Structures are given as structure tokens and as C-alpha cells.
Amino acid sequence: MTTGTRIQLSIMMFLEFFIWGAWYVVMGTYLFRIGFDGLNIGAAFSTVNWGAILSPFIIGVVADRFFSSEKVMAVLHLVGGGLLWYVSGIMDPAAFFWVLLVYAILYMPTLALVNAISFHQMEHPEKEFPGIRVLGTIGWIVAGLLIGFMDVEDTNIPFRIAAAASILLGGYSFFLPHTPPKDKGKEISISDILGLETLQLMKTRSFAIFIISSLLISIPLAFYYSFTNPFLNEMGMENAAGKMTLGQASEIIFMLLMPFFFVRLGVKKMILLGMLAWVARYLLFAFGNNDELVFMFYLGILLHGVCYDFFFVTGQIYVDNTAPRDIRASAQGFITLITYGVGMLIGSWSSGWVVDQYTLSEGGHIWKSIWLIPAFLAVGIAVLFMAFFREPKDVEGYGPL
What we know:
CATH superfamily of the largest domain: MFS general substrate transporter like domains
Order of helices and strands: HHHHHHHHHHHHHHH
CATH architecture of the largest domain: Up-down Bundle
Number of domains: 2
Number of strands: 0
Radius of gyration: 20 Å
Helix content: over 70%
CATH class of the largest domain: Mainly Alpha
């Protein structure tokens, strides 16, 4: 891969995650301010999960068979930018949900498209891709720092910043390296699109336990993504969006350390530590405060590297090494559908319902009770996983990351 191509792909990846990071983190804070209740906010966050469920159809039917990836991405981001700008002016919860849902259905497929465009240009993806992908995390961090620096977390400006970046990436995408449809002329199969071939692996108990645990743990995980920024702002933390980017910095550090831990701990302990890190994070939020115990809030944010990398990334490696070579891509699509799609969809709605139960009549929330619920849920799921999942015998087969 040439230096020019590397720069092109790095800019693409940076903008891709800058867009998402700009509006997603602070949306709950903004929606509380304009009068949405917890259920309305949970519904708004669920649009991303619906997008994750439906995006395989756009990728499998359109991008993989009829049009080049860069052109599909250009159209999706141009239209998506217009929708983001439009949604920034909507005050009605129902209308907000439906417009944001259409946007999410357009945006979520681009997460797979940026990977496809990148991989198509690489001779050694295992060596070249991490250096490109890390620019996405940096883009998310820059978005959070910018929103925090501008002090606009409870306004519609983050949506408009994301809209402008989306239109910029849409135009830029036309000039990305050509990535032709990989399955042109191939018969369309719903089973292939959704990765349903992976269901055959559920005959193995440990794999079935992994899938069930991944589905269940994604429910309490959604509490963090939907309500951490409103929580920190309500607690009085200044520049909460900027400080939340410490989580992405932690993610980069633990990603680099994963080979060290992986060889020494193995799959089961890594995933279990990831689950228990979510428990610790919610307990820190529940019992911390923005005064003498503010360090607990920071620790909860910094745990993101363990929470995300040890659970999600280790899980992806486990799936890749468990599935037969001919269905590995389908298996990765299936675990994404289960976690980011179905699991977090349930979590987004249920977290909104829980927040409403602990909303005070005079305003504000009983956050300790709110955070203890996902903490207890995560404990139960971790116990289930610990009791029934068996470490793969060929641990060496998982190798260095």
C-alpha cells in the first residue's frame, strides 16, 4: 500500500468515527434539555441498534453485488448529512425517532464499508489495518474534545457539526480508491447476509453460552452509551464530553496490551474480566460523586479499554478461531447482529424505561439506583458465563493479535 493510499484511508477512517462521536455521546444530554423523557431517549439511541440489524441488507444486497463501495458510501454520507442537519431542528420525540432511524440505517452500513475499502487496498491487513483503524478512535476523541471545548453538549450544534463532517466525507468518498462489488452476479441469500450459517456452531455448548452471554451482557452495556453523558453533566462535571474521551484513549492502550494479556489469561478469563469491568464501572458511577469521590467517575471512564477490548475484541477473536474458514465472515456479522443489534436494542429501550422510574418530580434522577440495575445484571451474566463456558483447548491457536 502506497503512502498516498494510507493517507487517504486514514482521513476516511478519522471522519467516519468523528461523525458518530460528535452527536452520539452527547445526544442524551441535549434531549433531556429539550424535554424528552428516558423512554424517548432510549428510543433515540435504539435507532443505531436498528441500523446495525438492517445494515447487512444494504451491504449484502447493494454494496456487495451492484455498486462499488466508495460510491455507495458517498451517497449514504451525503444523504445522511442532510438528515442529521434536519433532525437537529426536530423537537417532537416521534418525528425525531423516525428521522434518526432513517439516518442510522444509512450510517451503520458505512462502518462495514470503510473496512471493506481499507482491506481491498492492503496486501497484509493484519499488519496494515490497525494503523488505519486507530485513526477512527482518534476521530472519536477529537470530536469529544471539540464538543467539550465549545461547551455545546446540551445544544443541537453537535448534530450540525456531524452533518457537516458527513457531507464532507460523502464528497471525499468519490475520490477514494476503487473497491468493486465483491459478490457481483452471486445469488442473494438471506442466510449469508445475516450470518445465519453460524447457528450450526450453537451445537457446541461453549459457543452457545458465548452467544447467549454476549446477547444478555449487551443489555446492561447500553446503559453506559445512552446515559453516561447526561449523568456526568447532571452531577456537575465540566466538559463531560471531553473527559469521556479518556475512555477511547484507554481503549487504544489496552488494544496494544491485549497480546500480553491474551497469552497469559486465555479466552475465558479475558471475556470474564471484560464483563466484570462493566460491573466495576457501574458501581463506581453509583457510589462516586463530583466532589471528593470524583476519581471514581474518572476510573469508570478509564475502564473503557478493559470493558470494550477484553469483551468485544476477544469475542471477535474467539469467533474467528472457532468458526470454519468458509463462514468466518458470516460469523462476525452474526455476533455483531447479536451484540450491537439485538442486545443493545433491548438495552436502549430498557435503560430508558429504568431512567424514567428513577426520575424525580422536581427534576433530576436517582442515579445510584439507575446504575445499580445494570451492575447487578452484569454480575448475573458473568456468573452464568463463568459456570458454563469452557476454555478452548487449543489456546495457542488464538495466537498473538
